[in-house]
Every structure is written in structure tokens, then in C-alpha cells.
Amino acid sequence: MKPGLLFAATLLLAGLCGPVPAAAPAVPPAPTVRIDYQKTVLANGLEVILVEDHRLPVVAVNIWYHVGPANEAPGLTGFAHLFEHMMFAQTRHVPRGMADSLLEGAGATDSNGSTDFDRTNYFDTAPSNQLELALWVHADRMGYLLDVLDQAALSNQQDVVRNERRQNIEDRPYGIVEEALYHTLFPKEHPYYADVMGSHADIQGAKLADVREFFRRYYGPNNASVVIAGDIDKAKTLALVRKYFGSFKRSEPVARRTVATPAITSERRVTVPDRIELPRVFIGWLTPPAYQPGDAELDVLAQILAGGKSSRLYKTLVYDRQIAQEVNASQNSYALASTFVVDVTARPGQSLHDIEAAVDAELAALRDNGPTEREIERARNTIETRLVAQVQKLGGEGLANLVNRYNQYTGDPGYLQKDLERVRRVSAADVQRAARQYLQRNARAVVEGVPGKQQLPPDVPAPPPSKQKAAPVAGINRDEAWRYKAPKAGPAPRFTPPKANSFQLANGLTVIHYYNPALPLVAARLVVRSGTDANPADLPGLADFTATTLDEGTATRSAPQLADEIAQLGASFGSGSTADASAVSLFALKSNFARGFEILADVALRPAFPTAEVERQRASRLAELAQQRDEPELVAAVAASGALYGADHPYGYGRLGTEPAIRAVTRDDLLDFWRRHYVPANAALVVAGDITRDELRTLAQSQLQGWSGALRDGSGPGAPETTQARVVMVDKPGAAQTALRVTSIGAARTTPDYPALEVMNAALGGLFSSRINNKLREQKGYSYGMFSQFRYDRTAGPFAVSGSVRGDVTGASVSEIFKEVERMRAQPMREQELAGARNSQILSLPALFETDEAISGSMADLFVFGLPADYYQQLPARLSAVSAQQAQAVARKYLAPEQMVVVAVGDRAKIQPQLDALRLGKMELRDSDGQLLEQTGK
After folding, report:
1. Which of 198, 504, 558, 632 is the least crowded, having the fewest Cβ atoms under 10 Å away?
2. How far is the C-alpha of 557 from the C-alpha of 549, rounded, in Å?
């Protein structure tokens, strides 16, 4: 067994079948999961936690600084988050932009940072031979940021963070409503009162002196912990950490902050108008801090209340009464206080008053009677599967981050086993007691988000750039000349991408298998090669309507029975479609996979499409379409599809289709699509995880051998009819940002140009350090992020540069995008940029195979696009062969500026004059469903 994660007895389920006994059954033990870690505290106070795990030749570096809004001074809301951005600026030994380009060029993935109320973290996942490079970058931020921190860097990041606030709070549906919930739960002087991003006034009001002081106070080694998890040698890794961090001086000790959170003694109510179509209510309570008594009980309660289709609120509000579009509940656990939040989005025409009354009734039932034992077991199983699954991934939100969280909140980096056990100990009586103690009506805040005009504070203008340079300050740590040179990579680790092993059943079904015994988990998807591309011209969205209705009832199971059985297994289950495929997917602990697979087979092979369920899905899809209209970037994507492909092409619409089509679909249409396309010859079963080939063969034969049918429609989607307009506009009056897409038709997945396109696009706009993102975010401060990508379909999919920009720089942003496209076409990349773009694609390939779900997705692509079984083994060499001339050639071939369409979703009155000034050509107006309204211009 490999070091790092040790697994023993997996979950046993009680009471899966038959009536619940009067007495509570004995609770089976939690799965045994041990994180084998080594923790060392350096002389300067830095906590170093090492987890050796050789599943893949990658390593995750995750640093937590124990500082967040909980530590902010009054008037400096959002400061911790702003400072997170500052840490990505220049340091003494690493010039601005170098860290991103070096790490991405080394194959790093999941490179980012984040801030929550209690901590700020920075993380990268890199090939294991590049560990020293990652440590060099992180160490220079900790030790030498102050030496070069200047006003220019601060001003730039103030622009970026304010763009982030506009995009993720003010222009995101319900963003300001959720922010108002925290304003209502906490008093203004409480550190959790403000959103983590803070206000525009406080972000803009931050002074360089404040930033420097914040660094001195909170970014010392004794206020940080670093977790390094993956393909490492612990002794050698600890030596490297001592080399890069050991000489840093301590900062002044940071006292653990204790803040009294006043109890809510009478209900508080607020109404917030927002640019939304469907009202939503947030109901919040103050609850115990993370990992304290009551925290786990409330986590289980949240799962029972709104954790998927088996939950009480889903069954009552969404399924039975159909007055809600979606329901959610969560126990959000923090250090000073936690919040328990229920949020419910209304269906069109429904009342928040009725929804709130229904929520109150379910809460009263839990307080009065408690949950059933089956509900407790379902919730436990789901939470346990989620915790075990989290450690599949080393970086990002995976193992390294979880270890750091446990270390900060409990002092035990290996707390995972105890976490599983505390969830397993939760009883029905415990949940009832928690509901009675914390979720009372007079102890809550209720915030209603309703359609209307946003009421935002007056905009705070950014001051003109200062011509005076701030006086430099002395650094904290002694300079060391060796730090000026980036470390060289170690010997390249061996990595052979997994090869798809496949066999066929007698009925023609392809089975693709990858055995991955690292964790007791299995992911499966039954995929058919028919998606959006197979939609009839008069029924856009039919493929997805069919896929999402599959699990709403079979010949032997009703929709609620399906939901309950899946939840009882602690499994996750889903169905849906993409441009070229539809799929039914399952993810479960190995011990429960066979039972889950029987349900998957029943759903795919024997769907009933009950009339009542079709009508429920119809109402849900119409409401989802209304929600889509609130998302500017989704609106831009749908409008771009219509403009590129035309009304007669199946790609000319979004996944949902149109309102008339949704209303027109009949049960017979769904049944006919299923009969035509869900047949063995058009399908593949793709399974990755802790299941052997023989076990899978036996299981597949037992459940799928009787499946029959022949594909009756193999025609392609036809030729696109691209609009003659060069500018497509969707008016969103009052929008703070413009959702922007510069787009054209690109290439099919099987094109021989694929490697060159991926390398070229990485440099153009695919990477954080790419030309477009660097120009619009880092240099200009126009955007929180602007990226480009090719979507490769079986036929030519779209190319798009997309993101959101400040409304007042919409025209300037378009101009800069076209300049970068022209520059990519005009001259070959220089060797250093080419090598970085090429290596970013080659060396990051292990990320495609980090989790069972990722592996099954990668393997499914082989089937969907007709790629050879050894495709991933061949890909590194094909990418390595891409030359600067080839990258330029594909840029010239596929990126024709005169054929690109600019799609802008924003305040037309503000952005049209800017776009008119560019003289691009004809303009057309489309509505929020992407449908043509009118065309103007010559």
C-alpha cells in the first residue's frame, strides 16, 4: 500500500431495504481513512506538514496564512483579499509576471490563491521535479515582497479587485442579496459583517502604508503553515523547505482573535432589489464555530433539509408543490461563528411568502419530531463519501488544502479520520436538539431578493496615477544572492498517461476501463454519441431535455425512489448532455458501486418518461431559462452561438434550447430521441476506479447485456450560417460590467492541427500569463480575467476570447484583443514563449488523470471523438513537435479578425458608442435568449 493515504473497512449500510425498526439500529463504523503526515515546526515558527503520496508524479504546495477579514481593522474591509492579490505582484528576486510564466511553463496547475474569513491561502500543483521552483516562488513572496511593494502594484490590483467585485457580486445574480444576509446577521463592527471582497470605498481607500504594515504583521513564517503533498521524499523536501524558508525572521506574534458575536433575539428582515427574474429568499442563523459541538449535527441537518433530490425541501418545494426552482442549505463553518443558511429560488409566478411558510413547516417538523434513521444514514453516507472523495485530488481544494484546514481549526493535520467519526456519531436526537437550539424563528435573519433596480452606493472613482514614487522601505529579511536565480528542474519524473483498456459486450456496447486502486472509489459514465448536434431543427434542447428526464422515473422506480436509493448509498448521480454527447454518471464508494450501477442501468435502459415528470421538467427548464437570462456571460455565450451558427443549426442555441421549443416538446419526442440514440452501438460504458476488469465485465454483463437497438439517425448537424453582423449586442441597462466575447468558428476535435492550436492558444489567451489576460488584467486593469479557448466538437466548434470588462472600457478592450490576435498572426512566437506554452500543455497532462471522475471523462472523450486508444500516450510527442512556424500558421488559418464577431452584453447606452467608434461593421441586437431582434448599420 502506498504511503500517504491508508484505507481499510469501507462503509456498511443499515436499513437499505425494508421498514425501519422501531429501535434505532446499531450504527456501523465510519470508513477508516488515515492521512500519514509528518509535521515539523521550524525555528522561526513556520509549520511544515508533509504527506508522501506517489499516485502521480505531481506535488501540491499549499500555504495558509492565518489571516482574513477576521483580522481586518474597521474601515479596511476587503483588505485581506486585496492583499492576497498583492502577493502575486513582483518580489525582490522574482520580477512581475515571472512566477506565473515559469510555473505555467513548468506544467503547474491549480495555481491560485483565495481568501475566506479566517485565512488566506496560496497553492500550486506542479510536476514533482519542479517542487523547488514552487518553493522558490512562495518563499520569495513570504520573505521579500515588502522590499519592492510599490504604489503601481497596489493601484493595479485595486482595479483588478474592483472588477472582481463588479463581476462576482454586483453583476452576479443574487450577489448583493447574499452580501446583505451577512450585513443582517452580524453587527457592522463584526469582522464577518462585510463580504470578503469588501466595499469599493474601502478597496480604493487602501493606502500603501496600510499594505506594508499588513504584510509585516501577518505574513511572517510564524503565522503560516505549508502543506506539501504528493510525490515527494519527506526528508529531502523538509531540507528544501529549510533552505528556502528557514532564514526568515519571525513577525510579532499574532494573538488569536476573540470576538463576541451578539445573539439574534428577534427576527430581522430585509428586502433587496436586484437585476433578477426569479425571487430568492435567504434565511440565516448564527451557529457554533467550526468543529465545535453542534457543527457536525448542523452539517447533517443541512443535508437532510436540502441535500439533493432526496431532501425534505426538494421533495416538498421543488417536486411536490413545484413552487421552487432550487433549494440549498449549508452549515458554513468558521472560527468566530458559523452560519446556517437556507436559500430557495422561486418558480416564475410563485410567492416567497408561500415558500418561507413551507420552509418553516419543515423546520418545525424537524424540531418537533426529528429526522428518521434513514434520513440520518443517507446524510452520513453522503458526507462521508464527499470527504473521502476530496482527498483524490492533491492540490486545489483537495488533500493539501484539507490538511491545512484541519491544522488551523483543530491543530491536528490528520483529523480526517476523526472528522468521519464525528459525522458517524451524529444521531437523530442530536439533529433534533440542534434544530431546536439554533434554528428558531426569533434567532434568524431573512433577506428577500426581488426583481428591481439595484441600489448600490455611489461609484468611487480611482484617483489618477501618482507621479510621485513612494519612498522605499527596508526589507525584513537579509538578501541572499542565490535567490536571484530560479532553481533548475530535477530529473523528469516518469509519467505514462493511462491507456484505455476496452472490450465489447455481445450486444455491441463498448466498455472502457481503467483500474485505479488508490482509493476505494469508482466513477462510471454511460455515454452516447448524441448531444446538441442531434437536436431536430424545430426542437433545440431536446437532447438535454431527454437526458435530464432519464432519472425521473423508470419502469420499476419512481423519481423519489431513485433519489432516495442513490442518497442511501452516499453516491452522486447525474445525467445531461454536451454538444456531442449525452451521459448518465455515477460516483460511489467501491462498497456501494454495484448497487449504484444497477440503478444507472435501470435509468439508462428503462426510463419511463412519466407524463407528470415531463411536465415537472418542463417547468424546471423554463425557470432555468429565466435564470440564464440573469447571467451576462451565459447570455453572451448563447448569443454568440446563434450568431456563429444560425437558427437552423443545432449549435445555434444553448443547452436548454428556446422557450417555444421547451413548451412544444412532448413525451413522445423524448421517448423517440431515447429510442433513436440510446442504443449499444452508439454508446460506451466508461469506468475508472477501484474495480478490476473482471469485476466490471461481470457487472456490465449482468446489467447491460440485454440492452438492444440500432442507431437510426447518424446524420451530422449541417453547415453553419454565420451572421453578416460584426457586432452583436444584448442590452442590460445598468450593468456594471460588459460580458464580452470575440468569437469565430474554429476546428473539430480530430483536426491534425489540434496540438499546434493548443500551444498557440496557451500563449494567446489560454494561460493566466497569456498575452490577452496579461494585457487586459495585469497591464490595463480592465478585467478580472480574460481568456481564450477552442471548443472542439465532432464538427468545427467555436473559438472565443471571453470574460467581463468594465463597461467604460468595452471598446478599448475589444481593440486590445484584436491587437493581440493580429500580433499572434503577424510573427512567430519567440522561443522562450513557445517553450513555455508548449511545456504548459505537456507537463500538465497528469492533471487529466488525478481523480476517477477526471479519468473517466478523459477516456470518454476517446469514444465520443473517435480517437485511438493510445491517444494520450501519443499526445506529449505531438505537442513537443509544435514549432513557432506551425503555431503562427494555425493562428493565420483559424484566427481571421475580419470573420470574428464581437458579442457584448451590457448597458447599451454606455457601450454602443465605444463599439461604433471601432467601425467594425454591421451590428445586430439580440435578446437575453440569444434570439435576433434587429440588425442595424451598413
Report:
1. 504
2. 13
Confidence at 21, pLDDT banded by 50, 70, 90: very low
Q: Specify the amino acid at residue 588.
A: A
Task: Using alpha carbons, list the distances in angstroms from residue 498 to 3, 316, 495, 504.
Answer: 21, 45, 9, 19
Q: Where are the beta strands (DSSP E) in 474-539?
A: 501-504, 510-515, 521-528
> What is the layout of strands, in order, in the sheet containing 737-745?
783-790, 798-806, 737-745, 901-906, 727-731, 923-926, 932-936
Contact 923, 727 (CB under 8 A): yes
What topology is assigned to 263-390+410-451 in CATH? Cytochrome Bc1 Complex; Chain A, domain 1 (3.30.830)
Are residues 589 and 387 in contact, defined by beta-carbon separation less than 8 angstroms?
A: no
CATH 3.30.830.10 in the chain: give the residue spans.
34-250, 263-390+410-451, 501-704, 727-936
- 546 to each of 528, 540, 577, 680, 685, how far by Cα in Å? 12, 12, 9, 17, 19
- CATH node for 501-704: 3.30.830.10
Task: Count Cα atoms within 13 angstroms, Cβ side, for 870.
Answer: 4
Average model confidence (pLDDT) across the chain? 93
Question: For 599-623, what is each residue's pLDDT tens digit?
Answer: 999 999 999 999 999 999 999 999 9
Q: Which class would CATH give 727-936?
A: alpha beta
Q: Within 10 A of 237 (CB to CB), how many other CB atoms are there?
A: 22
End-to-end CA gap in the chain: 70
Please tell me whether residue 696 adopts helix, strand or coil conformation: helix
pLDDT in tens, 903-915: 999 999 999 999 9
Average pLDDT over residues 216-223: 96
Mapped to the 3 state alphabet, what secondary structure does 789-858 carry? Answer: EECCCCCCCEEEEEEEEEHHHHHHHHHHHHHHHHHHHHCCCCHHHHHHHHHHHHHCHHHHHCCHHHHHHH
pLDDT tens digits for 155-175? 999 999 999 999 999 999 999
* Beta bridge partner(s), residue 64: 121, 225
Are residues 639 and 728 in contact, defined by beta-carbon separation less than 8 angstroms?
yes
pLDDT at 75: 79
894-905: average pLDDT = 97
Does this model's pTM top 0.90? My answer is: yes
Element (H, E) at 664: helix 659-664
CATH number of the 34-250 domain: 3.30.830.10
Biggest alpha carbon–alpha carbon distance for the chain? 78
* pLDDT at site 180: 97
**How many other CB atoms sit within 10 Å of the CB of residue 274?**
23
Residue 471 is predicted with a pLDDT of 75
Cα–Cα dist 698/692, whole Å: 10
Q: Which long-range contacts (CB under 8 A, 24 or more apart) does 36-42 make?
A: 36/3, 36/4, 36/5, 36/6, 36/414, 37/403, 37/413, 37/414, 38/234, 38/238, 39/407, 39/413, 40/238, 42/221, 42/241, 42/242, 42/245, 42/246
